[in-house]
Amino acid sequence: MATFKEFRNNVKPNWCPGCGDFSVQAAIQRAAANVGLEPEGLAVVSGIGCSGRISGYINAYGFHGIHGRALPIAQGVKLANRELTVIASGGDGDGFAIGMGHTVHAIRRNLDITYIVMDNQIYGLTKGQTSPRSAAGFKTKSTPEGSIETSLSPLEIALSAGATFVAQSFSSDLKQLTLLIEEAIKHKGFSFINVFSPCVTFNKVNTYDWFKENIVNLDQFPDYDPTNRVAAMNKIMETNGMLTGLIYQDKTRKCYEDLIPGFAQEALAKQSLDITREQFDNLLAEFK
Amino acid sequence: MEDRGSARGGRRKYGPHFSTALNRLGYYLYGYRHFSSRIKGGHTNNKIRISTKPIRAISDDLDILVAFDQESIDLNSHELRPGGVVVADAKFNPTLPDGVDARLFAVPITAIAEELGTSLMKNMVASGASWALLGLPLEVFNKAVEEEFGRKGPAIVEKNVEAVKRGAEYVLELAGGPLEEFRLEPADGRQKLFMIGNEAIGLGAIVAGCRIMSAYPITPASEIMEYLIKKLPKFGGTVIQTEDEIAAATMAIGAGYAGVRAMTASAGPGLSLMMESIGLSGMTETPLVIVDTQRGGPSTGLPTKQEQSDLNAMVYGTHGEIPKLVIAPASIEDCFYDTIEAFNMAEKYQVPVIVMTDLQLSLGKQSCEMLDYEKIPIERGKLVKDAPPLEPNELFKRYEFTEDGVSPRVLPGEKYGLHHVTGVEHDEAGRPSENAQNRQKMMDKRLKKLKGVYIREAIRVDAPHEAPDLLMIGMGSTGGTIDEARQRLAADGVTSNHVTVRQIHPFPADLLLPYLKSAKRIVVLENNATAQLAAQIKLHCGFADNIRSILKYDGTPFLPSEVYKACKELN
Ligand SMILES: Cc1ncc(C[n+]2csc(CCOP(=O)(O)OP(=O)(O)O)c2C)c(N)n1
Ligand code: SF4
Ligand SMILES: [Mg+2]
Q1: Residue ranges of the Pyruvate flavodoxin/ferredoxin oxidoreductase pyrimidine binding domain (chain B) (predicted)?
Q2: Inter-chain contact A62–B423, Cβ cutoff 8 Å?
Q3: pTM of the predicted model over 0.90
């Protein structure tokens, strides 16, 4: 069995010192080892952004795609080889602005993949513009007078899109984050984890300290029932989305792959490409 | 031969049994559907041309017009040739417009159908009437009807057969027997297929081993998706209807990366959305097959009409510079074989391949010679299985510099194949790199992959003359029309050669050159307004002074007479 060190490679991340994304990377590596994966059995697909670089920093099959499209690429990988563990990841702009259409549809489609968003409430790579997660009034390069749009709530959206696994965490809480990623990988269906991952360079408001002060950790509520969708929605609204932990999980729904008619358990990529003469003749019959 | 009516009455296609029966008799058929993007309402018609010899074009005029309303007669009777025939439903008291030289047979189509129980059988009555006028044997028709309705029980079959018979009897009595001038010579009886280009593409994809299609519906591409939705599950595969064409293309890229042959299909608007994905496929050297069934553009344009105006988008689309193959099938057979080849090329050269059709090729139902599923063997190029162990921390050189530019490819899951894939410029293992030397080498490596690469029959040549008066050049569905125009020109003593360009990009300049050189005048035919194919020829081969364009962009395919006339008027 691989240890978390085997999920490390020798590529030096180009993230700023102190960037939250370092811990997200570490948590993925630990979780992968903890659930017993081998590097060759893991595919990490990422979008474009500072966060999108993550697929290059994990020793696994990594695919760094285009801005906002990590999810469709990841779903294609999973359909082609369902024996792989597939993790898609990227930034808040990647997943909730340019890629939002894919995010809601991937959620409702429910393929068995894990989606981790590194949410820093800003566009890091392009040097500090407003993101769909930036709060109203937030001043950035693109909103010098303060943002006049409200921030969107990915957790509410995920729930209403029919998510079967919704969690949120904070990159400083490596223990909780690792555990949640493990649960997400084990979940048979689409798992969505939004991670507060501070940008120390461009976001001077949503800092580590700010998160520490504002976060409500669900681990402190032993009675909280993550199988109750209504309660989950209430909790998100009550806390204004500032909660961490496993928020909702539905283990009863089948994943997409299991619902495709005639879809084998074996990876499609391993199946023969050939068809027989008899199969071909049958295909021709309707055109005669 | 044509049947016409408005879409409102559910009269959307002439019964399939009519053409199935003709196909079984061995006739060559060529269909053309005129429809509008409104689902209900709007005039529709369905033309079918019948011949004992191969035909690949619509005809200038009609012999028989079958009409279910007066509007159809009013709109279309001018297309009848002198002495043509109109078979119309007596129910609306049909009349011929002034000046139309035709015979009108008013058959109580609705009345007979209703008498037999349902007006749904109008089709049958009308088909029976037309069949009888052509002097064809009813048994073959009845057999096709039997197969079509057999599942619904003998009573239904019997009723339909009766409808055919009554239609036939009624019209024969009016006409005094089959019409001698329309009597068809017996056909060769050889087994042929009758299908649309989109079905041939779907079939080709299955034979090629494509097992995932991700697509978003659009006219005129949707039939490919619909065909594969029915068939792929039988081969362990699946079709996924995505949220948009960006998802469709990138999902196919993900599947291709993970080792499954995957495709998407769309038309102009979808192609526009896929541009960034095409670049990703090119940069990451991930196989991708896209079908673009061209329709009238720009924007929503003429969504149900013929055009060939996406050529530039396919050749030049996506930012930066990547190797990319654009293939243009020119027949139903091509749709099948080229699709198989597209998948081979995409894997062998690890590039995006665009299969370009046009609406008439995608949707016109035509005769097709028997297909051979073994003619083009599956080739997967440098796909590595069981790669040897790597040193600790060493990555698989997925983008290794090689002689031909094509690097070994491993699939995720492979024990010793770990590497990184990125649309960012990268080194041999896929790690991002901004090194200037590496950048240049990588660009050269990618771009040389398709140097001198040709598909089978990159140009198709019919060159009976050493120094013809005309060299006619076309692509896609226009070949049959060009050939008919050439026959008429030959009768006037004008000699011509014909080249169909089937590989649009990289442009097969050296193959085309000798034919350009030998012709006195070069004519390029295309369904667009800006002569996009001619521009490619001029760019890659020259001859600008000697090239003339015949362009049509009103939404309808070329007619042989139009091409003939335009050629006569050339300067
Ligand atoms: C189609 C396209 N538009 C714009 C960009 C430029 N771009 C790259 S990353 C990015 C946003 C990054 O923000 P986010 O997704 O939140 O990631 P972060 O850098 O904050 O981790 C933008 C706008 C691009 N690469 N592609
Ligand atoms: S700019 Fe912000 S998000 Fe990007 S690496 Fe630096 S700290 Fe991280
Ligand atoms: Mg961000």
Answers
A1: 204-444
A2: no
A3: yes
